[in-house]
């Protein structure tokens, strides 16, 4: 059976290589291989850092699938009716999971262990080879078990919030995580870190290589036992998953709900939407994610003693909340037909969604802002927060519906979603693009308020309130008009996807516009992954340090330069960061434009 | 102008192309007012696409659709106030209970609150959805989804009902209930269009039929005119020009 599943996985891979995703697949493999070779280089040139590098691979295996929607090419649900014992099925699925580029890449990376072992002699090299195989199996298994636990756990609101804490923290680390090593570099004793990376499953092999032969054998045997245990656990989780019915991520609760309020139009839609916000685990997860992200992101620089970001925690939560809500229409699937079949309901639908979004996000983020500003003790920040908050909140409530109507990423209908309660089935890349779009577009709406604060601190409040109200009203009006005039086309897009909804002429236009060339694709990925560096730690953070006279120079280039060069450097860094993000986001969008434009 | 002489639904030259495949070649059909009209056809014939274009849910590449003489694509709001629709397989406001869905949609249509409450109660009772008060629509079975969809279509007492596969996945008892509701609706002056590929069912309740095949209407009229002396099923197989398979191969199935 294992052989059959491996063949099936390879067949899927072959089709993927011929399909739309071929170039991303090739590109991903190339980047992965570069990283793998880099890991081997670490083993050659900086051996003490190898356990940490291997820990990064383990983290990739654990968190990668959570962010990319399960990463299961062979879904356990396909095989529920095959008469085989759970453990046999789990082993076979595991074998199938090994036929993937990610495993190939990781095995290249793990040859670094043999390189490491070579320093300790021939016997240690042998130990390293065995350990490398066990580590590979363990990584794949840990990844599968994590996905399985995640999928099973996230069936209540509390679990969705907990999952959001994990994802929010990880993503915040990728933006502001630099503060931790910087803080650690100034700390005296780092031996605990070395011990920690050896305690992780990725470091057991290293520990075995470094130990005496009997101890090494013991470690290898123990890790082999862990593999067996993980298979057993996974088998149990698989059986649970395919036999328990939790469709579409509905939190468990069961009572007759409060009666629906007897209101019409906008308020009726808002009542419906508020119920959806609290009853859809995906939405619960996304909003809590925005909150946790904001909290962790702003607290990380406190590690180096800088509280300057904390007052803006509520603002960042609004931005993220807007980013994750921008696909509002598509995540409802084809339910739009009811709005279209109700005469004249389009305006109420847009306004009601705005109202509900403001109610779901506004009060909590306002509280967060006040708490952040108070806790930070940064008195200068109060006028900024008070002026920018209404501007950003209003701008977000306007742009959310506008983007949701004009640039939706089609998702699977809620009642047809699969075993992962947190996946809407929408294209992950497209959804991430929407998040970035909002992160850039929403702050622009707050520029007038920012200018007002610079001129006269408390003048920001009336300006912020005014632009906020204007955005809610104006963008909502455009969205409602677009929905009224192009609702049918929007429904067709959500029902059939962008390809099927196209007419023949658009089909030709799309065919004439090829996939992004490889060079640009690489550049886009590089810009995506590195733009945070000039923008945040080298640009915005030193800017605030200078503005508010913080003495610490940390590792901010600008602050080491002569005074005259500091501002130009900061400006340059921020511009580079913004340009990198702008290019990475806008270029692919322009490229794809012929597919989605014109109806 | 809406007149009682105008057909409940008239489609002329409807056409829809997806990519390089024409889902609907050219459909002309006319549903007389006061009739119970069955649209039949094999899988993939274009029934769903035709109905979606006829009610204003999918913009046709060519052709017109009129509801009681009102152009669906020109006077959209007026046309939509005349019809109740049950599309096949579309999503609903999934995170509401059945009662909440009906209340919400009634209020959104601007119906008076006491009317909404009364009709919701009756519809839930008649369709036997009142036992699942705490259940969200997303947790409904396929049959329950059909029933809540039908309730949504009936809620505002439309003059024309357009139901795509209303009997699919419905148990026999509920099917009987729905049939009775549809007959009463027609007796009360309403018109109904249903699509189905179950001939016996269409024969049992419809007085008019349209046969659609390969994206075209190949026969249309009163039930007796279309089937003549045969059963509808025989007439259908003949009209569609298909050969019933199943007699060859598969010998290993007999054990």
Task: Note down, in words, how this protein is organized.
The complex is a heterodimer of chains A (599) and B (255). Chain A contains 25 helices and no strands. Helices cover 75% and strands 0% of the residues of chain A. Chain A is globular. By secondary structure, chain A is mostly helical. Chain B is α/β, with parallel strands linked by helices. In chain B, the strands form 2 sheets. Chain B has a 6-stranded mixed sheet, with helices on both faces. In chain B, helix 3 runs antiparallel to helix 4. The longest helix of chain B has 16 residues, at 172-187. Chain B starts with 8 loop residues before the first strand and ends in a 15-residue tail after the last helix. At the A-B interface, helix 12, helix 15 and helix 20 of A face helix 2 and helix 3 of B. Chain A: This is ABC-2 type transport system permease protein. Chain A: The chain crosses the membrane at residues 21-46, 52-71, 92-116, 122-147, 159-180, 215-237, 284-304, 310-330, 355-375, 381-407, 434-455, 461-480, 522-545, 565-586.
Strand content of chain B: 15-25%
Instruction: Please state the oligomeric state of the protein chains shown.
Output: heterodimer
Q: At CATH's second level, what is the architecture of the domain at 9-93 and 160-243 in chain B? A: 3-Layer(aba) Sandwich
Q: What is the ordering of alpha helices and beta strands of chain A? A: HHHHHHHHHHHHHHHHHHHHHHHHH
Largest sheet of chain A: none
What is the percent of helical residues of chain A?
Answer: over 70%
Protein name (chain A): ABC-2 type transport system permease protein
Transmembrane segments (chain A): 21-46, 52-71, 92-116, 122-147, 159-180, 215-237, 284-304, 310-330, 355-375, 381-407, 434-455, 461-480, 522-545, 565-586
Keywords (chain A): Membrane, Transmembrane, Transmembrane helix
GO molecular function (chain B): ATP binding; ATP hydrolysis activity
């Amino acid at each position: 059976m294992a052989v059959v599943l491996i063949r099936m996985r390879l067949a899927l891979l072959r089709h993927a290589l011929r399909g739309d995703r071929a170039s991303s697949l090739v590109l991903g493999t190339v980047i992965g291989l570069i990283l793998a070779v880099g890991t081997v280089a670490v083993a050659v040139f900086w051996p003490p850092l190898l356990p940490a590098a291997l820990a990064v691979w383990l983290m990739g295996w654990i968190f990668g699938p959570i962010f990319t929607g399960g990463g299961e090419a062979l879904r356990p649900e396909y095989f529920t009716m095959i008469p085989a014992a759970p453990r046999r099925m789990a082993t076979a699925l595991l074998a199938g999971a090994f036929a993937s580029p990610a495993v190939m890449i990781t095995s290249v990376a793990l040859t670094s262990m043999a390189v490491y072992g070579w320093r300790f002699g021939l016997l240690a090299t042998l130990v390293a080879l065995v350990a490398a195989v066990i580590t590979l199996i363990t990584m794949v298994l840990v990844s599968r078990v994590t996905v399985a636990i995640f999928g099973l756990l996230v069936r209540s609101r509390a679990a969705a919030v907990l999952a959001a804490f994990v994802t929010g923290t990880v993503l915040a680390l990728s933006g502001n995580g630099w503060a931790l090593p910087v803080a650690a570099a100034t700390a005296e004793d780092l031996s605990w870190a070395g011990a920690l990376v050896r305690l992780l499953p990725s470091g057991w092999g290293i520990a075995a290589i470094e130990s005496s032969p009997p101890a090494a054998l013991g470690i290898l045997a123990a890790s082999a036992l862990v593999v067996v245990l993980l298979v057993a656990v996974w088998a149990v989780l698989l059986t649970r998953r395919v036999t328990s019915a939790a469709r579409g991520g509905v939190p468990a609760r069961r009572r007759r709900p409060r009666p629906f309020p007897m209101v019409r139009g906008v308020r009726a839609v808002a009542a419906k939407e508020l119920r959806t916000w609290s009853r859809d685990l995906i939405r619960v997860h996304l909003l809590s994610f925005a909150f946790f992200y904001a909290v962790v992101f702003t607290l990380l620089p406190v590690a180096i003693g800088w509280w300057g970001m904390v007052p803006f925690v509520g603002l960042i939560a609004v931005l993220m909340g807007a980013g994750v809500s921008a696909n509002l229409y598509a995540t409802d699937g084809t339910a739009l037909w009811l709005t279209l079949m109700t005469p004249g309901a389009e305006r109420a639908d847009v306004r009601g969604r705005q109202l509900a979004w403001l109610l779901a996000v506004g009060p909590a983020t306002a509280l967060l802002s006040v708490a952040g500003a108070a806790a930070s003790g940064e008195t200068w920040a109060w006028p900024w927060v008070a002026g920018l908050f209404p501007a950003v909140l209003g701008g977000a409530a306007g742009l959310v519906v506008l983007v949701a109507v004009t640039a939706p990423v089609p998702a699977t209908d809620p009642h047809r979603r699969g075993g992962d309660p947190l996946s809407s089935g929408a294209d992950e890349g497209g959804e991430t693009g929407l998040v970035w779009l909002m992160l850039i577009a929403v702050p622009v709406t707050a520029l007038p308020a920012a200018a007002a604060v610079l001129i006269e601190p408390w003048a920001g409040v009336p300006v912020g309130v005014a632009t906020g109200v204007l955005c809610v009203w104006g963008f909502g009006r455009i969205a409602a008009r677009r929905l009224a005039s192009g609702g049918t086309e929007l429904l067709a897009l959500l029902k059939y996807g962008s390809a099927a909804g196209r007419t023949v002429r658009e089909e030709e236009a799309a065919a004439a516009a090829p996939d992004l060339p490889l060079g640009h694709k690489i550049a886009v990925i590089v810009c995506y992954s590195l733009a945070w560096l000039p923008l945040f730690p080298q640009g915005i953070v030193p800017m605030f340090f200078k503005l508010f006279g913080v003495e610490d120079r940390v590792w901010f280039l600008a602050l080491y330069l002569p005074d005259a060069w500091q501002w130009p450097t900061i400006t340059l860094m921020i511009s580079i960061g913004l340009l990198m993000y702008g290019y990475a986001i806008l270029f692919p969008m322009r490229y794809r434009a012929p597919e989605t434009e014109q109806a | 102008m809406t007149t009682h002489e105008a057909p409940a639904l008239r489609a002329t030259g409807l056409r829809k192309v997806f990519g390089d495949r024409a889902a609907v070649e050219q459909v002309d059909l006319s549903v007389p007012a006061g009739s119970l009209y069955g649209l039949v056809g094999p899988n993939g014939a274009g029934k769903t696409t035709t109905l979606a274009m006829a009610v204003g849910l999918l913009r046709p590449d060519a052709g017109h659709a009129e509801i009681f003489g009102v152009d669906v694509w020109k006077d959209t709001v007026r046309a939509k106030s005349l019809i109740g629709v049950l599309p096949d397989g579309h999503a609903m406001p999934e995170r509401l209970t059945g009662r909440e869905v009906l209340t919400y949609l009634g209020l959104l249509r601007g119906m008076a609150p006491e009317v909404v409450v009364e009709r919701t109660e009756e519809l839930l009772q008649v369709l036997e959805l009142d036992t699942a008060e705490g259940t969200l629509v997303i947790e409904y079975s396929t049959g329950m989804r059909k029933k809540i969809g039908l309730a949504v279509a009936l809620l505002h007492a439309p003059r024309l009902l357009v139901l795509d596969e209303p009997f699919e996945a419905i148990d026999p008892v509920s099917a009987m209930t729905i049939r009775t509701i549809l007959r009463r609706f027609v007796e009360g002056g309403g018109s109904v269009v249903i699509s189905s590929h179950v001939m016996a069912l269409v024969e049992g309740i419809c007085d008019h039929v349209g046969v659609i095949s390969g994206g075209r209407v190949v026969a249309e009229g009163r039930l007796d005119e279309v089937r003549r002396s045969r059963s509808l099923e025989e007439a259908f197989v003949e009209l569609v020009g298909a050969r019933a398979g199943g007699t060859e191969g598969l010998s290993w199935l007999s054990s």
